Amino acid sequence: MASLARDAGHRLRIHPLDVTDDNSVRAFAAALQTSPVDVLINNAGVGGSWNPLLSIDCADMARTMEVNTIGAMRLSSALLPNILKGSTRKIVYLTTRMSSMTDNTPAGVYGFVGGAYAYRMSKAALNAGMRTMAVDFKEQGLITAVINPGWVQTELGTKNAFMKVEDSVQGMLRVIDDLSAARSGIFIDYQGNEVPW
Ligand SMILES: NC(=O)c1ccc[n+]([C@@H]2O[C@H](COP(=O)([O-])OP(=O)(O)OC[C@H]3O[C@@H](n4cnc5c(N)ncnc54)[C@H](OP(=O)(O)O)[C@@H]3O)[C@@H](O)[C@H]2O)c1
Questions:
Q1: Residues of the chain above pLDDT 70, percent
Q2: Cα–Cα distance measured from residue 197 to residue 186, given in angstroms and rounded to the nearest whole number
Q3: For residue 54, which of 12, 41, 87, 157 sits 20 to 30 Å off, Cα-Cα?
Q4: What residues have CB less than 8 Å from 73, skipping those under 6 apart?
Q5: Whether pLDDT at 42 is above 70
């Protein structure tokens, strides 16, 4: 983190943030003061335990929801005044195709069918929160979306994933740039294709 800050010079400011912690989110929002925020990208996420139902880990399920769902809403709530002052007023959330009910069938495109209760449920609930915000803040010009980044080679995605981080990020940046009020509340992937709920 220190080397990232040094390399980026004055163009980048880095703050600590734990989205599960009220005090941490409050301190982050306070550090921004009244600065406008053009785009908020809620990236923080955990995979949670993929135990089958008969050995479900409920404490882990609660932790997964705390980061993936509640954390994202806590941050969105804290930064909303800054976002509404921004030039583009966009909030996007990293979701997953695994949150799609339609895709969780034998014909699903990933072949990840069944299982991963905590992860699927936490992201499906996140999708619902995002969609609700699109409705509630339409008049104020807020534009929201959940984006599926693809299966990406990160710690969470593992080395078996199809995609390099750069390719996913480049695609998502284009998708975020192209988001318009007319498409607010959408479930979309890194290539700009709409994902069925
Ligand atoms: N990789 C994939 O194939 C894939 C597919 C679909 C969706 N996604 C979604 O994409 C997003 C990014 O995932 P990734 O693949 O980059 O996973 P990752 O390599 O495991 O990175 C997860 C990131 O979330 C941060 N984080 C976790 N808990 C946090 C908390 N309480 N507060 C603040 N930050 C927290 C981590 O920060 P620290 O490093 O500081 O812990 C880390 O930067 C996630 O929302 C994930 O669900 C990923």
A1: 93
A2: 9
A3: 157
A4: 129
A5: yes
Which residue carries 């992937």 as its tokens? Answer: 189
Identify the residue whose tokens are 């284009």.
174
Report CA(184)–ligand 1 centroid distance (Å): 23
**Measured distance CA(38)–CA(139) in Å, rounded:** 17
**Is residue 11 predicted with pLDDT exceeding 90?**
no
Residue 119 CA: which ligand 1 atom is closest? 47
Please, what are the domains in the chain? 37-189 (3.40.50.720)
pTM: 0.95
Ligand 1 centroid to Cα of residue 45, in Å, is 4
Helix ranges restricted to H, the chain: 2-8, 22-32, 58-65, 72-84, 117-136, 165-178
CA of 158 to the centre of ligand 1 (A): 12
Mean per-residue pLDDT for 69-97?
98
